Amino acid sequence: MSLGLILAMAALVFGSRYLFLVRRLPLRLGPRTLRFLSFASPAVLTAIWVPLVWVRDGALDTRLTNPYLLAALVAMGLALGQRHTLVTVLGSLLAFFCLRHWG
To answer: Where are the bilayer-spanning segments (predicted)?
Structure first.
C-alpha cells in the first residue's frame, strides 16, 4: 500500500470521527438515525467474528474440535457469567491457545 493511500484513509477516518465528537459543529442526528446507528457495532463485530470462527480453508467448519469455535463458546460463557471484559478476553485467549497447543 502506498503512503498516500494510508494517509488518505487516516484523514477520512479522522474526519468522520471528528464530525461527531466536536460539540461546536451544528451536526445533530435525529432519533431514527441514532436508532439505526445503534445496530452498526453489532453488525460490524458479527461480520468480523463469524468468518474467523466458522470458516477454515474456504469451507464451513462445524466440527466440535474447531479451536476457534470452542474458544468462542468459552468467551460467550465468560461474558455471560462474569460480565468483566478483561476476564473474558484473557480467559478466551488462554482457552484458544491451550486448544491450539494440545488439540
So the answer is: 6-22, 34-55, 67-99
